Amino acid sequence: MAAAVELLDAHGVDGLTMRRLADGLGSGVMSLYWHVDNKENVFDLALDSVLEYRGPQTAQQAQDWRAEAVHMLEDWRASMLRHPWSASLLPRRALGPNILSRLEVLSKTLSRAGVADADLNVAIWSLWNYVMGATVTRASFDLSDEDRAAAQQRLTSLSERYPTIERSRLLLDNDWDGAFRQGLGFLLDGLSPR
Amino acid sequence: MAAAVELLDAHGVDGLTMRRLADGLGSGVMSLYWHVDNKENVFDLALDSVLEYRGPQTAQQAQDWRAEAVHMLEDWRASMLRHPWSASLLPRRALGPNILSRLEVLSKTLSRAGVADADLNVAIWSLWNYVMGATVTRASFDLSDEDRAAAQQRLTSLSERYPTIERSRLLLDNDWDGAFRQGLGFLLDGLSPR
DNA sequence: ACCTGAACACCGTTCAAGT
DNA sequence: ACCTGAACACCGTTCAAGT
């Protein structure tokens, strides 16, 4: 599936064509259908291959649950941003083994941190929502590179009608990494036991 | 654009075809291109029409910032879930006037609540991320109705390998509305001033 | 067991032309 | 100003057939 990932990285979701993929593999188009049921299947395999998690490099686990959670979540986001087509695909497909492993890790970490069993699922889904929302949004800015200039100009002309977000420069702020980390901190504050 | 929204509701993003849209309008396909630049333009118009916000019905504003924020955000989510194709489209397109209005409202509310100017953008994007992640995920479950049975079975067979999320029944819990509200509460806790 | 070409039923959009 | 049909360059996938 490395060939599919390469194609997706280069041309985006719409650029992955069964014909183009076959070309990259040096085979006929219909050969693909021996190995794969249909095009969606290709997406599923490519998506899962991108979501593997190896865990923190140092054996710092068990001592700082918060650092551990942040590490997994930031690595998850980074993995998806390395392949900007992946984020918008993930919530639309069945969950593969690699993303389930990440959720398992997260669940263990939060449990160990003292999050009540009754709050555990809500906590996990909240973090899922935060990461997915942030990454889907960020990734789409990567994809529409050429439109940026036009969008920028459209915004400043429109923003007279939206004085508050204009004043805080909401749409011009592009410290995405910092905003992600800081907002994640706020969310973990809210989720922390006691 | 009501015709486009209807088609999208009925057949999803892939079901909206220029040919089908023209049929619904009782015109030739190419007539559409007089009113619209291309297909993406149709999506933009349909998307914005779905995101209008009328504000809270009672004049309870200014007294309870938290209720006001929750009202807008839950209404935003509900509007997108009424049109399940809309959520995954929103982060991929340029921001239209209606969603900008919602962000303006949110910004005013949080500002009035005492959120520091330095934290304002992070707070808004955090809420954006949470709502978008939750809704994109939830909406896709609506779309893949038929696959549910198969997915369910696949999950229980797989879940032996993921004991923690199996034990909390993470993937079987389907109180989506409750989880959204509760998680939003946690996030607002974390974002609250002081 | 694995690969293939031809064919089918579609797409979005250009273009030249109509009223 | 608005609408149209024909044509172009694509799609994913079925099927019957090859090795």
Biggest chain contact = A-B, 58 and 58 residues
The main pleated sheet of chain A reads as: none
| CATH-defined topology of the largest domain in chain A | Tetracycline Repressor, domain 2
Strand content of chain A: under 5%
Give the helix level of chain A as a range of percent: 55-70%
General shape of chain A: flat
Give the tally of structural domains of chain A: 2
Q: Output mean pLDDT of chain A.
A: 90
Write the layout of secondary structure elements.
2 copies of one chain form a homodimer.
Chain A: H1 2-11, H2 18-25, H3 32-35, H4 39-50, H5 65-82, H6 86-89, H7 97-113, H8 117-143, H9 147-158, H10 163-167, H11 176-191
The structure holds a DNA duplex (19 and 19 nucleotides).
Task: Provide a descriptive summary of the structure in words.
Two copies of one chain form a homodimer. By secondary structure, chain A is mainly α. Chain A has two domains: 1-50, Arc Repressor Mutant, subunit A; 56-191, Tetracycline Repressor, domain 2 (Orthogonal Bundle). In chain A, 69% of the residues lie in helices and 0% in strands. The first copy, chain A, is built from eleven helices and no strands. Chain A has helices at 2-11, 18-25, 32-35, 39-50, 65-82, 86-89, 97-113, 117-143, 147-158, 163-167, 176-191. In chain A, α5 runs antiparallel to α7 (97-113) and α8 (117-143) packs antiparallel against α11 (176-191). The longest helix of chain A has 27 residues, at 117-143. Chain A starts with a helix and ends with a helix. Chain A binds a DNA duplex (19 and 19 nucleotides) through α3.
